[in-house]
Write a structure and sequence with these properties.
By secondary structure, the protein is α+β, with helices and mostly antiparallel strands. It is about 45% helix and about 15% strand. The strands form four sheets. Strands 1-2-3-4-6-5 form a six-stranded antiparallel beta sheet. A hairpin with a 2-residue loop joins strand 1 and strand 2. The longest helix is centred in the last third of the chain and has 46 residues. The protein starts with a helix and ends in a 7-residue tail after the last helix.
């Protein structure tokens, strides 16, 4: 899609805008650099018509209408919406939906982390403050962002932080635009979604979506502090990532940072949304953000001695042990199935080659059919011990 759109719209003019070059693209749209009638640089986002065909023109119009409701907003740290609507590409007489935003100089947070690695505490706290404040202001308007992730966060050259991509805004308390009857497709980015949102069991309330915001911001902070994507080791296959989001407890270890802040991030990634929001609401956010990492050793000692920290850490560790146990049992089950298939294959081959007597005397002196007896004994899982002591003397043809 990106290559086709770049060829089609490069140096194209419509309405008050002239497109110059493609600057980014995603699954649903391509973003171009351009100029408005006042010769000011803008970013023009043109949506993929296949997406519109999939969800319907009415749904896409409602999405753009929602974005346009934020035109000229005064929320710090949130991308401005300058214009939006449709235009017709004359050569094919095809209608396209678009959104116009300011052109921002900088890079997204994912690119920043890939270049810099793990970031220092001051940057992490600055990004946390900006995301927290902008999403709280959206909640006051009864709106949830739903797709907070490093790719959607701009690190501007002037030092500002801007939350981008308002394409999947949710009006809290109303049905989702893509929900049809019992069908509730997941909208967002799996890696940065909390379990309840991935399963589409989120509470469609202010608190419910605040809990989603908390988790997604916590996931972004994980990337910042650890210098790598959350659950990167579970990226493939897809089922592994789903399991990790629902069950795996992320490990965050930054002894050089304020430990109250590190613990805050851990709590933001708690799986149960009600426990997550409860711990977050109890945290003294202004105090945590004003604390200095210069006293990190004292902070670390305080965190170790803190009853609350001990409890939360213990709770996380217990959950991690339970998850590991479940994972081990699942692996053992898979191993048992593989061993069973190997044994069954070997027995079949031996029987076909007549390498062993078809009938033999068991330990109690009664004749048994080897294949049937061994299958029942081993594959059923009953033969835990003593197999060789009972059958080592079985007659074998040489």
């Amino acid at each position: 899609m990106a290559d086709i759109y770049e060829t089609r719209f490069r140096y194209y003019k419509f309405g008050d805008y002239e497109i110059t070059e493609m600057i980014n693209y995603g699954k649903s749209a391509v973003v171009f650099k351009g100029y408005n009638a006042n010769d000011k640089q803008v970013a023009i986002k043109i949506f993929d018509n296949e997406l519109i065909a999939r969800y319907g023109e009415t749904t896409q119009k409602q999405r753009i209408f929602r974005e346009n409701t934020l035109k000229n907003h005064n929320i710090d740290g949130l991308v401005d919406i300058l214009d939006g609507g449709t235009f017709t590409f004359e050569k094919t007489e095809t209608e396209y939906f678009y959104i116009v935003m300011p052109f921002l100089q900088g890079c997204n947070l994912k690119e920043y982390i890939e270049k810099k690695g793990a970031c220092d505490e001051d940057i992490a706290k600055k990004i946390f403050r900006s995301l927290h404040e902008s999403t709280e202001e959206l909640l006051k308007l009864n709106i949830a962002h739903r797709d907070i992730k490093p790719e959607n966060i701009m690190m501007l050259d002037n030092g500002d932080i801007v939350l981008m991509d308002l394409g999947v805004l949710k009006l809290i308390g109303t049905d989702d635009l893509t929900d049809v009857g019992e069908s509730k497709p997941f909208i967002g980015t799996l890696r940065y979604a909390p379990p309840e949102f991935l399963r589409r069991e989120e509470s469609n309330t202010i608190d419910g979506w605040k809990a989603v915001n908390i988790y997604q911001i916590g996931a972004v902070l994980y990337d910042i502090l650890m210098g790598t994507e959350l659950f990167k080791q579970y990226s493939e296959p897809y089922a592994n990532l789903v399991y990790a989001v629902c069950e795996s407890i992320p490990h965050i270890d930054r002894a050089d940072c304020d430990q109250e802040f590190v613990q805050l991030v851990r709590n933001m990634l708690i799986k149960n949304w009600q426990t997550r929001i409860s711990h977050f609401n109890k945290a003294n956010i202004p105090q945590i953000l004003s604390a200095s990492s210069k006293n990190s050793q004292n902070d670390l000692l305080s965190a170790i001695l803190s009853p609350q920290s001990k409890y939360i850490t213990m709770e996380n560790e217990i959950q991690q042990i339970k998850n590991k146990k479940d994972e081990t049992l699942r692996e053992l089950g898979e191993l048992q199935n593989k061993i069973g298939k190997i044994i069954e294959s070997c027995l079949t081959e031996l029987e076909e080659k007549k390498a062993i007597n078809e009938w033999f005397l068991s330990y109690d002196g009664r004749p048994r059919e080897l294949n049937r007896y061994v299958k029942a004994f081993i594959l059923s899982g009953e033969g835990k011990q003593g197999f060789f002591s009972k059958f080592a003397w079985c007659p074998v043809e040489h």
